[in-house]
Amino acid sequence: MKAIPNSGTMESASIRQLFSYPFRIFFLSMSILALLVIPVWVMLVTGALSLPLAMPGIFWHQHEMLFGFLSAAIAGFLLTAVCVWTQTPRTHGSRLVALWGVWLAGRLLLAFGSSLPDWLVHTVNLAFLPLVMLDAGWRIWHARQERQLLIMVVLGLLWLMQVGFVLELDMTYSYGALIMAMALISIIGGRITPAFSSGWMRQQGLDPSSIRIVPALDLASLVAMILLMATLVLGWQTASGLLAIGAAILMAVRLVGWKGWLTRREPLLWILHLSILWVPVALALLAGTLLADWPSNAWSHAAGAGAVSCLILGVIARVSLGHSGRPLILPRGMVLAFVAIHLAAAIRVLTALTLIPWHPGIGISTLLWLLAFGLFLVRYTGILASPRPDGKEG
User: Fold this and answer.
1) Closest Cα to residue 304, out of 187, 179, 191, 193?
2) Mean pLDDT in residue range 7-33
3) Cβ density class 72-96: b for 16+ within 10 Å, e for less
4) 7 near 331, Cβ under 8 Å?
5) Distance of alpha carbon 45 from alpha carbon 153, whole angstroms
6) Which of 170, 194, 220, 367 is the most exposed place for a label (fewest CB within 10 A)?
7) pTM greater than the 0.90 cutoff
8) How far apart are CA 215 and CA 198, in angstroms?
9) Per DSSP, what are the bridge partners of residue 327?
10) What pLDDT is attached to residue 130?
11) Angle formed by the axes of helices 118-142 and 70-86, to 10°?
């Protein structure tokens, strides 16, 4: 696939345009946060920087990656997709400004709010996901699209993990949140990845019938991950380990049915398949942690830096093009960004497993992470902040 230069024009870009559709402001804000949080965390750990954080540094890092970075991606994708699914008017203008303001306030309060009361910091941060769910849920309910309610259930469980995390400062809840993030990948990735792949194969004159989607297998993998989250929070270690193995097998079988290797010539597709492959890898590493005392930060980075972050980059690269009325042709440099984000995740996991020394491992993975999201920011800022070339709203 050919790469093209940035198709956005900074001359026509505006802040107002960023608030014309949820994906625009949230994808841009999320990528900026990605470029800030990781190097800030490294500087905090090494003592090169000190901030008046509202919670201990390790918990701040986990919260911002799970409930700052991930929540912005969820808001940008879900509030954009639901408008299309339900054929309802998009959230935009002052209403979108207010929602984004809640998200931004949460980031600022956690980074600089050490002297503020906990109830204020927690209330603002815990308000964002319910507001997103309220916006999306109202549309889904009125459109009678029961199929989408599974997403609401998983988002509700993700929010409960956030509640437990901020109130207890217990990593068990961040681990539960990672499982729910992968459950969300199981649902959304299971819908868009084989569907996009089938469409592309049809366009290429290939037979899309080779791609298999088994609804019972989809449901089984989702139920397995919800049960895994529940047993993990309850402290049932052996049961969690066995469920992690079962969920990993189910996700791997699903991926085989999607035939990702057939899309290897299309970066906008192989990035989705390869990213979801991190889910069974993370689940297998989690089983090793629970049953064989493997390092816990190996599975958590396979899930967070691998499955979640890699899929987010692949999805936002596609959604930003399609929903801004542009052809699905990657801007120049984005294939490198896709490679960099996967290498960053792989090196971070290998570092956690002590197969790569800590200092070079952390340094290289951080630089690759910054390269990936830096390229997205450079190539997509003009696209996200500029009007659609076809003159339509949004």
Assistant:
1) 179
2) 83
3) bbbbbbbbbbbbebbeeebbbeeeb
4) yes
5) 36
6) 170
7) yes
8) 16
9) none
10) 97
11) 20
